[in-house]
Design a protein that fits this description.
single chain; 483 residues; eight-stranded mixed beta sheet; five-stranded antiparallel beta sheet; globular
Length: 483
């Protein structure tokens, strides 16, 4: 069968990048199309980073199945990709008898889902584990296998490793139309039209629209906005577990959790909206987070907040993941409605999609040169003094600190620019090496990062963006007399 590609994946979030990497284990011509300027640019960028235990999803659902299958994969996966991951455990709190009864139901649900290590911890022991909990908390459900991960670092690492194993990724490639043409699809982006034998739709909140390009839409995605507050590392040890409240129909509620980088994260709230591009934060939303979080943890010092942000979850009208071929078009696979626990489930989802393709008799011989290990890179802040000396001796750029808050060097930024899916914007560098993630939020280092980007990419300062093409930082010079 003659086409440009055997498989086209639409969407560069964690699910799309995971599928791309898993398919790279086979000798296939694969392309991933991402409409944004970078991978991990939407839902995967604004994610809690929780690797869930698996007791929350209803037994028998894809969410329950893939959560439990995906959770144990993270230890080896993050070692291979050099992504920070920690099994810190989670605690779901109860403040009254009704919520305590809910914890018992969650334990029973977890047992049906085959989740190990669940137990209800009574108040005395609970406060030994987490002394800063609200004094009204009477018990908690502890899941020792829950963890925390850096969601955008994971997505970027998956993309890099996929490209190292011969997957092609094209950014700034929004899919404008898909035309079925016999056994292939013609996919049009602003830059080109390409052909693929199989399409895997991982377009997040836009997955219903992508599906609607080839058939009458049969599911609806509602964007559900969640706002977050991130705190300075000086209070990152306020809790050690990820603290959840009893779940409701809108999700797992406002959580209070440490991050793998030592910050404290609080959020999200939950609001169904219509605009699939609205990632604004609001005073009322952030105030509600502060109020609700106080039910879990007392005396959160909100004056230590350093940033707030929001993200959209792709909530479908079925209440479960949608992972299936179209009935009359088996070579078009929807991977839609991947909301929580989507991050945790993504390794298992990727394997499931690969199995779907194998069952369609797609020739899939093993890629014997596949290397699961990501190309290594220097993390200067984590090195010992002798290791730093050796690194600087080899490359003096590692001796120049650019971001003082996070101890990020010029050498790390240059490396991040020139990797196979390199950072091209301020946010792209921020996601890769954390320059601008600290207390000053880029107040001191942003100009220096722009200087390095301009130099390394041979660009004018006015061509450097914060994130998307419209996010200007420096306006171009105007000729004298021009309006």
């Amino acid at each position: 069968m003659n086409s440009d590609y055997q498989i086209a994946i639409i969407g560069g979030g964690v699910t799309g990048c995971f599928i791309a990497r898993e398919l790279a284990r086979y000798q296939l011509r694969i392309i991933l199309l991402e409409k944004g300027s970078d991978v991990a640019n939407e839902t995967s960028k604004a994610n809690s980073g929780i690797v869930h235990a698996g007791y929350d999803a209803s037994p028998g659902t894809l969410k329950a199945r893939f959560n439990v299958q995906g959770n144990p994969r993270f230890d080896e996966l993050c070692r291979e990709l050099d992504v920070p991951f920690k099994r810190n455990g989670s605690i779901t709190i109860a403040t009254d008898q009704t919520e305590l009864d809910m914890l018992e139901k969650l334990v029973a649900r977890g047992e049906k889902n085959k989740v190990d290590g669940l137990r209800i911890v009574q108040k005395d022991e609970l406060f030994e584990l987490e002394p800063n909990l609200n004094r009204k908390v009477i018990a908690g459900l502890r899941a020792g296998n829950a963890g925390i991960v850096d969601p955008f670092a994971l997505t970027i690492a998956l993309a890099e490793n996929a490209v190292d194993n011969n997957v092609e990724i094209k950014l700034n490639s929004q899919v404008l139309s898909i035309e079925p043409n016999g056994s292939t699809f013609s996919i049009t982006t602003p830059n080109e039209t390409l052909k693929a034998e199989y399409v895997i739709n991982c377009a997040g909140v836009h997955s219903d629209a992508i599906c609607g390009m080839v058939t009458t839409p049969y599911f609806k995605i509602t964007p559900r906005k969640g706002e977050y507050i991130i705190f300075d590392k000086s209070i990152g040890n306020l809790v050690s577990h990820s603290i959840f409240q009893c779940p409701s129909q809108h999700g797992k509620g406002v959580l209070v959790t440490p991050t793998v980088h030592g910050n404290l994260l609080v959020g999200p709230n939950s609001e169904n909206i219509n605009d699939k591009n609205d990632i604004s934060t609001t005073v009322s939303g952030l105030e509600s987070i502060c109020k609700i979080a106080g039910k879990s943890v007392e005396k959160i010092p909100f004056n230590m907040a350093i940033a707030n942000f929001s993200g959209l979850r792709a909530t479908d009208d079925r209440g479960d993941f949608i992972i299936e071929s179209l009935p009359d078009m088996k070579n078009f696979i929807n991977v839609a409605g991947i909301e929580s626990p989507g991050l945790t489930s993504s390794p298992a989802i990727a394997e499931y999609v690969v199995n779907m393709l194998q069952n369609m008799n797609l020739p899939m011989s093993a890629n014997k040169s596949f290397n699961p290990v990501r190309k290594p890179f220097v993390k200067f802040a984590e090195l010992s003094d002798p290791e730093r000396f050796e690194v600087v001796k080899k490359n003096p750029l590692y001796g120049k600190i650019v971001c003082r808050c996070e101890t990020i060097t010029e050498g790390e930024i240059v490396d991040a620019i020139h990797r196979n899916i390199g950072g091209r914007t301020l946010d792209g560098i921020k996601k890769r090496v954390r320059a601008g993630m600290g207390r000053c939020q880029g107040g001191f280092c942003a100009a220096r990062v722009m200087e390095i980007l301009a130099r390394e990419l041979n660009l004018d300062y006015s061509e450097i963006r914060k994130n998307n093409p419209e996010s200007f930082i420096v306006m171009p010079k105007r000729k004298r007399g021009a309006l």
